[in-house]
Amino acid sequence: MYPRFWSQPIRYLRWAAHEKPAIFYSIVVGSMGPITLLTVPPIRRRLGDFDRETIPLTYPVPEGPRKPVPEGYDDPE
Predict the structure, then answer these.
(1) Burial 16-42 (b: 16+ CB within 10 A, else e)
(2) Rounded to whole angstroms, what are the CA distances from 26 to 29, 47, 56, 71?
(3) pLDDT tens sequence across 50-69
(4) Residue 5: partners with Cβ closer than 8 Å, 6 or more residues away
(5) For the residues of the chain, what is the DSSP string, one character each?
(6) Per-chain mean pLDDT for the chain
(7) DSSP character at residue 23
(8) Taking a C-beta distance cutoff of 8 angstroms, is the pair 24, 16 a contact?
(9) Is 16 strand, coil or helix?
């Protein structure tokens, strides 16, 4: 017989750790994800690791007139 979770949660967790360790520890590791999501970014910033500069999505257009294209390399018209 297994203990019911809502009436005896600590006893149920101890039973699950012994009888069904794969399920128990997968739930433990999976529940750490949201906790990590909330705690790691402030710790990183406190240690001096800031977000990187964003990668440019376009090539910057140079200012001024366009240089002439050498003969033979121009687009055919």
Answers:
(1) beeeeeeebeeeeeeeeeeeeeeeeee
(2) 5, 30, 39, 67
(3) 888 899 898 888 888 888 88
(4) 12
(5) ----TTT-HHHHHHHHHHH-HHHHHHHHHHHHHHHHHHHHHHHHHHTT-PPPPPPPSSPPPPPSPPPPPPTT-SPP-
(6) 87
(7) H
(8) yes
(9) helix
CA atoms 63, 68, 72, 77: torsion sign: positive
71 residue type, one letter: E
Q: How far apart are CA 15 and CA 19, in angstroms?
A: 6
Pairwise CA distance, residues 13 & 51, whole Å = 39
Q: Which residues contact 50 (CB under 8 A, 6 or more apart)?
A: 44
Write the pLDDT tens digit of every residue in 2-13.
Answer: 678 788 888 988
What lies within 8 Å, CB to CB, of 57 at 6+ separation is none
